[in-house]
Amino acid sequence: MRPLSSLRWKIALTTTLVCCLVAAVLGILVHNVAAQQIVGEVRKDANQELDHALGHYEYGTAHGDVNVALDPPGLPPPLKALVARGRTGSMVGLHDGAPVMWAAAPADRQALAVWIPYEHTRTRLRDIDAAILASSALAAGLVALAGLFLANRISRRLTTTAAVARRISAGDLDARVGFPADDATLRPRRYRDEVRDVAQALDSMAASLQGRLEAEKRFTADVAHELRTPLTGSLAAAALLPEGRPKEMINDRLKALHLLTEDLLEISRLDSGVERADLAQVELGRAVQRAVAATRLAAEVHVVRDAVVLTDRRRLDRILANLLTNAHKHGLPPVDITVEGPVLTIHDHGGGYPPDLIDQGPQRFRTGDPGRGRGHGLGLTIVAGQAAVLEIALTFDNAPDGGARTTLRLPVGKLPEGS
């Protein structure tokens, strides 16, 4: 069930409230007009009977079966005071407990009054009020349903657009909203559809972003492939140089360039989405100890609680090697690695990760903080890519006591049958 604070409920409630307000105003107006007309008719009848009674009173004759009397005991005091001032008037009051319409006029310093039944008039007014309330309730209900239908349609389309935007943010650049555009040649566009405009703008943005990223991926892959062949020849040629400092310098630079090329090729494969993990159940503590030993980099491994995780040993070794290399290159010793169940933490004691890396994640060719040394930003980019292949939850932050901290939460489970 959607919360009442959602857009569709806000639109429906607003529409209903406006309808109720309009119905209330119109109901009051209709009630007043109908009451004035009906009461006016009764008042007119009472005044006519009073005129006849005055005529008969002057000639000293009776006035048929009309209720008429001089200073009757039930005459309302306001009307009696009005007659005492020499004026004629009428008003609704009671006679013997029953509602009547009174009409009175001066007659020999007394009040000559007539009264006619008013209960039927009250019943008519109550019937009119009931009809107004029923009509208002029916109109409010229909408007509420119509508003809820329209709001639900708008909310559904906005929810679809938001879901597609989240998928694009998560990396699914093929996601599209796909609302059909109006064809001006088939039917003219009579109104502006803001929701469709937003959806089409999102689709256009996603297509543009996808095109740029695909171009960047192709460029990275092409550069890496083009560099690989001449580098291989250059490494072979450098091996033929005579021993000495010049050969060491050339080999050192060629090896660095060769590693950069291999990193770019690995990133291009990760970006293409063709990488598939060879999953197996692995004891995380032992796997981490073996991977650290293979790197020959100083690090303290603390196995607080071991766990069996579902992962690819080769890719996990690659992730750990890059994180340890990054910690030694940009941080300060000691480097601590803690295994606590399926959660793995790598913590150095240097200046910590730059804020941009923590907020946005690693980006190629951007190290973010000169204080963490020079680099291409490819090592952590590969870590993030391999972690995505292994479905590892990866976070970068700085420890409270200082230093960069990387946390990996590995998936725990059983291998599917037949694997």
Q: What does this protein look like?
A:
With 419 residues, the chain is of the alpha+beta class. It has nine helices and eleven strands. A hairpin with a 2-residue loop joins strand 2 and strand 3. Helix 5 runs parallel beside helix 9. It is rod-shaped, with a radius of gyration of 45 Å. The two termini are 39 Å apart. The N terminus is likely disordered.
Condensed summary:
The chain is α+β, with helices and mostly antiparallel strands and 419 residues long.
Q: Per DSSP, what share of the residues sits in E-state strands of 2 or more residues? A: 15-25%
Helicity level: 55-70%
- Uncertain runs are 1-5, 183-188
Helix and strand pattern: HEHEEEHHHEHEEHEEHHEE
How far apart, in Å, are the first and last alpha carbons? 39 Å
Count the E strands.
Answer: 11
Whole-angstrom Rg: 45 Å
| Mean pLDDT across every amino acid position | 80
Q: What's the arrangement of strands in the largest beta sheet?
A: 6-8-9-11-10
Characterize the largest beta sheet: strand count, sense, and whether it forms a barrel.
Answer: 5 strands, mixed
Shape descriptor reads rod-shaped
Class derived from helix and strand content: alpha+beta
- Contiguous helical run count: 9
